[in-house]
Structures are given as structure tokens and as C-alpha cells.
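Task card 7
Instruction: Convert sequence to C-alpha cells.
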Amino acid sequence: MEKNINEAPLPVILQKVVHLTKQQTVPSFREVGLKPGSAAILFSLEEYGAMSQRELADHVGITPPSMTVALKKMENKGYISRRVDEKDQRIIRIELQEKGVKCVALVKQSITKMEETLFEGFTLEEKLLFRRFLLQMHDNLMSVSDWDESGFMDCFQHIDRRRELQDEEII
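Output:
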């Protein structure tokens, strides 16, 4: 490891690991004709079943306009389909198609390989402990409700716009 990364704060190290992981997995997404954001959509549909477009956008964490673009592309490729909700004709449900199911299986294989690389040299106990630590960090950050955002709003607006642009690139 580089000397500067060894001295970096933990959030910087985590960000670097996430970035490297993305760099390693994106080629496997391309092999099946997906971008990472599209894979997240397929995984959500596989795990939770048919959802409305809004539910799916909220679940995946992308803007509704970005979701519209992604779904159109995925429908054209045969990964998903749309159907009218049986109980409420105003709602259109997004469903995973057989091609999408196969794609999820291939992506899961890629993720398994990535985990093997990430955890090379770790014991089972270390892996479980690391997972517990990450989940606790997630919970800690999610529970913070008294952040003083006033000084950061301009920065967050810029970040939100950048994220929307990235959503369009990822999907």
C-alpha cells in the first residue's frame, strides 16, 4: 500500500476501496450489457418483486427522471417489463424478465469473485467482525439527526447536481 493511504483518515481509505471495487466490477457489468445503476435496479426487483417506478427509484436511490431513462433502456434490452397493477390501474409495475434473472446471476458471480479478492487473507471471524463494524457505522450515520447543514447547503446542492449527472452516466 502507498504510504499516504496508510496515513489517511478512515473515510478516505473506505472511499478508495469503494472506488477500486467499482473499477474492478464495471467490466463484468459491461459483459452483460449493464451499468452499475442498472444492476442495482435488477437486484432490487429480484429481491423484492415487482415495484412501481417511484418505489424503485426510492429504493435504489436515484432520481425519478434518471429511473425513467434507465427503465426505458432496460426494457428495450429485455431485462424488465411493465404491467398495469391488478388492484390499481393507475400504477404501472416494473417486473424482472428471464433475461434480467440470468443477468443477476452473472453479476452475483462477479460479486462473489470480488469478495474473494477483497477478503483474501482474512479469517472467517475477521470477515464477520468487519461486516459488523461496517453495519454499525452505517447505523451510526443513519441515526444522526442533528447535523447543522446550514454551512454545507451550497456544497450539497453542487454534490446533488453532480450525483444526478453521475446517475445518468451510471444508468
